[in-house]
Amino acid sequence: MSIIHILDGQTDVILATSSKFYNDVHRETLKNEEIFDFIEPITSKASPYLNKRNRVIIPTDDGFFKEFIIEKAYQSKGGIEVYSSASYFELMKAKPIAPMTLSSYSVEMLLDFILNDSDWIPGIKVYDGIKTIVFDEYTDPYSALKKVADEFGLELRFRIETNKNRITGRYVDLLERVGEWRGKEITSGKDLLNAKRIEFTQNIVTALVGVGPQKENGKRDVVTVANESARQAWGRNGQHLWGIYQVPDDGGNEDMTIQRITQLTSDELQKRISTVISWEVESADIEHIFGREHEKVRLGDQVRVKLTDFNPQFFLDARIISREGSIRTKAQKKYVLGEFIEYTAEDIKSVKRMLQKQIEKKLSETQVLEITYPKGDIDEKLKDVPITDDNFPDETPPTPENFEGSGLFKIIQLKWDYSPSSLIASYEVYASKTDGFTPGPDNLVWKGKSGGYNHQANTNETWYFRIRTVNYAGTPSPFSDQIMGQTVQIKAEDILPRVITNELIAENAFIDFAKIGNVEITNAHITGLLDGTKISGNEFIVGNGVTQSQLVMHTTDSNYHYIESTSSGTGDETGSSITGGLRIRVPNGPLSLSSNPGTGVYITDSPLVLRQGVRVDGTAQFNSDVFITGAGDTLYANDIWKNGSAVLSAAEAQGWFADIDHTHYEYAAAYHTHSQYAEWYNTYNIRRGSATLKFLASGSPTIQARNYWDDAYGTFEGLAYSNVSRREEKKDIEIYEKSALDLIEDTPVYSYRYNSDLSMEPKRVGLIYDEAPMEIMQFTGGIDVYGMASLMWKAIQELNHEINLLKGAV
Fold first, then answer.
1. The model scores a pTM over 0.70
2. Cβ(739)–Cβ(728) under 8 Å?
3. Fewer CB atoms inside 10 Å of the end CB: C or N, the chain?
4. What sign results for the dihedral spanned by CA atoms 677, 681, 684, 690?
5. d(C-alpha 173, C-alpha 55), whole Å
């Protein structure tokens, strides 16, 4: 439920709140045009304050707030209709800026100057250069900001910041571009509700009369510019469609030549000879559905629109230049698209066909010439000559390259680089058990045309091989260098007899798909992947009594797996002493502890020391202290657990990081100059953990306790909660004069259940935000418990005073 706040137009004091408004429309554009209109019931407590240029505060989709000034309100049968405009339009009524030239000013200097006599202050500035800005006549600060934005090629953004029930700042940002590309696609059949393609032809002309600026003698130059193609396309009965263009003065009347006037008029005509296309799109607002957080759309964002139910179909790359919708019912939004590029289905198919042709063209002309001749040469060679095996060119074929062999059980695998050259009729492989043998007909073991050959042999045998190629005329290539191959043998005194015998096993044997039971393997070199699913048992001990050992284990099942070490170590490169426990060290790269989604990395019984370059992925659960050391002292994680419960969870979509400058009180006192232990950033929209802390968007002071689905609030538990209350932390201190008893007496207490509570759960007791005193309201829709307790404290004082009066009367 969205709540709006009504503020006094002069003091910013909250006068009322409302959650009963309806038919509301919030519209914003990139041209900084923004309104909020709504209807309020006449019986609402807020209705008496919807006048006198009071202000309205509304929440945004990102947890921030926007401010509007009530421009018009009138009563109808259905309620009070309220029309309000963004409060930054008040800059039009701020103190005017006299004509002047600001030479060599930066963006920051210009904002300071323009906003000096207003309620607004400079915010984010992204431009580091300087420019000279000329105000040649009196102008208001709002128009001055627009001029600065245009001169620097930047875009304006206005925002407010709040703390509890106060506005703490009104900011003007100058950005390179409002919005971003989030990968959002609005698609027929998913979230596209309606779309309109609008063509404007009202302003089309085919000829212009250009009227130059007035000269010092009072005269003006006049030119005529026409476009014949446009006349044929749009004219009737051969007549032009005429228009008049007042050419602006762009640097002094004397410099505005006839040629310059003609050029400017021609440029303007080009803008008017074609139709103006615009698109309006209505889309379902699905970002608030669980799991669809990435579907959000904001003003200025770049989006793709797929209109597959149009005839013809359209595909758009566009920017959101206008956004309109309700803050109360977030079911759908209306967008106006700009800066768009239209593609038809045929355009997409044409690009696809072009890409397919490029992919299919596998060999370049240079590559083809490496294995054949130019067409002219081929035609000459084939001229009146039939091609047979007997008249192929008798050229010496190439010797095979990369000839190598590998020994297996009773097989030596040979392979070489296969060549498709027409010079090669076959390959010949020669083999012998004699080192340095001479190839001959007696040791030719294979002849054929392929890139490999399996030579059959007995176990524990050594063979030597050479290879050559032969062309169709029988001319051979030179022989390759000799290579060696050796079959393998298995040694296993502990293997049962008549299964695998000693005579069949060789040193350095390769064993494929063997089942071995009750075997001790010593000095084994395992290459490739060791499949943990084929190692059964409760323990897998690595490095027992050995100071250095390595293990890489991948698991794909949902069970827990442990790596345990009980030996004592002596320390590592940092000089830290390690007694017992498990040390995992990667000398030449970062260490990553990873888990499948929904499982986790568990650290129990002793501290986890994360040194530089360590990354923990998945759900990390710690039952003891965590120490972060190394460059940057930065911890990256999705969730942090303590004693089986989630203590910190973060955004699945955007992620978060903690700047751990101080990880433990003793370390902070010894090595750091201030007492801030950790700073947490950008923790918005959490979806992990059974109970989570939700840090709202960057800049918001609010932290919430939420459930797993992030659709209801959770519960805080602790020994004590404290609010900052030191005098030096406060200002504008004065005695609170209102009667706390009157406030308490006028505020009803209700019993209720939250929407997420079960019907069998007992009802809760509390206030309703809309009816609470403004002293304890917060813009987020919550109640300030500290303020509520302070009011009760004062009420007790008031009651005690009345009791003392009664005692005196008695």
1. no
2. no
3. C
4. negative
5. 22
